[in-house]
Design goal:
mainly beta
């Protein structure tokens, strides 16, 4: 599965962005996720959504970020509200089916100014 992420940009603190990840193939059986990597820090999970629609969020984004998907369009979204400077990172889309089938998209940069 090839993944194409978009939607990053520069936003002021308190603002919103919506990231999109389009898959070249079906995502219906995958757990889809958004991960992020800030400068000098390891990549970490921001949000995931299972094939059944169950969601999981990092504590730092709960109540502010919402992950959703449209299987028909092969697209996963991350709605980010009330953004904070500490949300600044490169955001990566992930599709996970198994250890063998674990795909990453290219990153999209989100910069939140204070």
């Amino acid at each position: 599965v090839q993944l194409q992420a978009s939607g990053g940009g520069l936003v002021q603190a308190g603002g919103s962005l919506r990231l999109s990840c389009v898959a070249a193939g079906s995502i219906s059986g995958y757990t889809m996720g958004w991960y992020r990597q800030a400068p000098g820090k390891p990549r970490s999970m921001a949000a995931t959504i299972t094939s059944g629609g169950n969601t999981n969020y990092a504590d730092s984004v709960k109540g502010r970020f919402t992950i959703s998907k449209d299987n028909a369009k092969g697209t996963v979204y991350l709605q980010m509200n009330n953004l904070k400077p500490e949300d600044t990172a490169v955001y990566y889309c992930n599709a996970l089916l198994s250890r063998q089938y674990n795909f990453w998209g290219q990153g999209t940069l989100v910069t939140v100014s204070s």
